[in-house]
Amino acid sequence: MFRTRLISGIVLVVIALVVIIAGGPVLAATLLVISLIGMNELYRALKIEGGRGISPLALSGYLGCVFYYLLVFLDVHAYTMTVLLAVLILLMAVYVFSFPRYRSEQVTGAFFGFVYVAVMLSCIYELRAMTDGAFLVWLIFLASWGSDTCAYCVGVLIGKHRMTPRLSPKKSVEGAIGGVVGAALLGMIYACAISGQISVGGIRGVLLIAVICAVGALISMVGDLAASAIKRNHDIKDYGTLIPGHGGILDRFDSVIFVAPVIYYLAYALM
Fold first, then answer.
1. 3-state secondary structure of 98
2. Cβ of 269: how many Cβ atoms within 10 Å?
3. Dihedral through CA 218, CA 220, CA 222, CA 227, nearest 10?
4. Is 169 exposed, middle or buried (0-12, 13-18, 19+ CB in 10 A)?
5. Closest to 16 (Cα-Cα) out of 137, 187, 118
6. Distance between CA 85 and CA 230 in Å, rounded?
7. Could you give the residue ranges of the DSSP H alpha helices within the chain?
8. CA–CA separation, 194 vs 186, rounded Å?
9. Residue 1 has what pLDDT?
10. Going by C-beta distance under 8 Å and a sequence separation of 6 or more, which residues neighbour residue 251?
11. CB-based contacts of 34, cutoff 8 Å, min separation 6
12. Cα–Cα distance between 84 and 237 in angstroms, integer?
């Protein structure tokens, strides 16, 4: 199991390197596919999807995802709010004209899935497209996957106090602190390595990136636990089986989904 998980993790890192370095349409298309798969996993967990064929409610969310990414890629941000409202209206129309096929919580779940997965993940592309974005976009993964690794190592070594025993018994307070500190240190090391490549360099740049990674690590825990809470509520172990040893897209990108918009806005405001 560990070997499978390790190999899958290495493959994911390699794919992330290739796709993010390429940027542009390659990154946009990859995020679109990841978002559609992630939405499908969530819709199945929420019982919005799961029968034969694609349900009209799920199809509305998928169409919204495609149009949203099209506008993001074309840099037509003035209409992104219009897409959000259009998706909500479309979902309500499906709810009304197919009544009583769906429950109201399924409609809100469909809209939630669209925002939670597609809109939040699109911030990876938005950050990559910024000035210095080719370097700053990696802060998302340092703050999510990096902090997760640091938290696991510290938790295994000295973790004693359970953080959320009813939700995730293996997570400890010591591990959480280790994750935040580890992310900040990784950010500092990375900042030193790229100091000559970004507009905000020197000590100020190093400190800013360390702070951004530390805040991202805190949010990463929320994303991880939120995804776990949804699974517990719906009695499922994993969202899917796409990634051997890891589960589904949401099992591997749960923290990235939350971290991406936070890092994007922090980088936009501070860098």
1. coil
2. 8
3. -170
4. exposed
5. 137
6. 25
7. 2-22, 24-45, 56-73, 80-97, 104-113, 120-129, 133-136, 138-141, 147-158, 173-194, 202-233, 249-270
8. 12
9. 59
10. 227, 238, 239, 240, 243
11. 121, 249, 253
12. 31
Euclidean distance between CA atoms 142 and 140, whole angstroms: 6
* Distance between CA atoms of residues 98 and 265, nearest Å: 39
Dihedral Cα 101, 103, 104, 105, nearest 10 deg: -140
For the segment 138-172, what is each residue's pLDDT rounded down to a tens digit? 999 999 999 999 998 998 888 888 887 777 878 88
Burial of 27 (0-12, 13-18, 19+ CB in 10 A): buried
Each residue of 205-251: pLDDT tens digit? Answer: 899 999 999 999 999 999 999 999 999 998 898 898 888 878 899 99
Give residue 249's identity as a one-letter amino acid code: I
The answer to whether 226 and 247 have CB atoms below 8 angstroms apart is: no
Q: Which tokens in the block code for residue 120?
A: 């939040």
Determine contact, residues 1/213, Cβ cutoff 8 Å. no
**Is cis: bond before 100, omega within 30 of 0?**
yes
Q: What are the backbone dihedrals phi and psi of residue 191, each rounded to the nearest 5 degrees, phi first? A: -60, -40
For the CA atoms of 36, 38, 44, 48, the dihedral, rounded to the nearest 10 degrees, stands at -50
Tokens 């769906």 identify what position? Answer: 102
- Whether pLDDT at 83 is above 80: yes
* Separation of alpha carbons 183 and 233, rounded Å: 30
Q: What are phi and psi of 49, to 5 degrees?
A: -125, 155
pLDDT at 69: 96
Phi and psi torsions of 29, nearest 5°: -65, -40
How far is 129 from 138, CA to CA, in rounded Å? 13
What is the rounded distance in angstroms from the CA atom of residue 132 to the CA atom of residue 135? 6
